[in-house]
Design brief:
Layout lengths: L4 H9 L7 E3 L10 E6 L6 E2 L2 E2 L2 E12 L2 H15 L7 E11 L4 E13 L1
Parallel strand pairs: 1-2
Antiparallel strand pairs: 2-5, 3-4, 5-7, 6-7
Length: 118
Amino acid sequence: MAESIDAIVRSALDPLVSERVFPDVAPPGTARPYMTYQAVGGDLAPTFDGVSTTVNARVQVNVWSDGRVEATALIYQAVAVLCGDDVKGVPIGGPVSTHEEDTNLYGSRLDFSIWFSA
């Protein structure tokens, strides 16, 4: 059965942050920590029969927390579940740390390559 990249990412990450995983941006007032994600590219797999139903998404996962230590720990937990046996994602590079001065949130982000049946 085909599954959306949204469903794949959310089902993997939801347990890490009590189901506070959102596409693109979190709603105002969301409790921390939370995660956001967005598709930032990927690859189509053309075949001699046309475009394959197996597609690739490059997904950026962002962790937001009140502290650097928690943000770093959560991005590595995300790596473990997205690169585990269920999803089989591949990290692209290493985590990037950030800090939002306006909100005083600490973040960490990482892109993953994930193949799935569309």
